[in-house]
Amino acid sequence: MRESGNLFADVVPGAAEEQVRELLGAPGLRIERIVSTGQASPPGFFYDQPRAEWVVLLSGSASLLFADEPGPRHLTPGDYVLIAPHRRHRVEATCPDGPSVWLAVHFGDG
Questions:
Q1: pTM of the full structure
Q2: Which helix (H) or strand (E) holds 56?
Q3: What distances in angstroms separate CA 64 from CA 53, 71, 74, 79, one per listed residue?
């Protein structure tokens, strides 16, 4: 784990796969940087996580769909969402023209 760094360092534009880097891990807490470059969840797939997640979009754009909502939420830089444990959700889309950088904080028991 690094003591300091830059959230935008080492971003690979146009990467074929989403990049996930853990920035901090501690009991009951995980903070990660996620870089999406046009990736989305596979068709029909929903995350169902045992821990809460607070996520903020730092750059780019994205759409999140919750199983209990009629349509996706469109996110722009600065938008954040608290996702309760086991609240089914998926990434519908991320910006294909540049990196979408997320900061995700996973916390709680689970």
A1: 0.92
A2: strand 52-59
A3: 13, 9, 7, 11
- Residues 55-80: pLDDT tens digits? 999 999 999 999 999 999 999 999 99
* DSSP β-ladder status, 62-66 and 73-75: antiparallel
Pairing of strands 100-107, 29-36: antiparallel
Lateral strand order in the sheet of 62-66: 73-75, 62-66, 89-94
CA-nearest of 15, 25, 20 to 107 is 25
Six-digit token pair at 102? Answer: 């997320």
Token readout for 26 is 């501690």
Residues lower than pLDDT 50 in the chain? none
Report how far residue 48's alpha carbon sits from residue 59's, in angstroms, rounded to the nearest whole number.
25
Give 57: exposed, middle or buried? Use CB within 10 Å, 0-12, 13-18, 19+.
buried
Write the DSSP symbol of residue 51. Answer: S
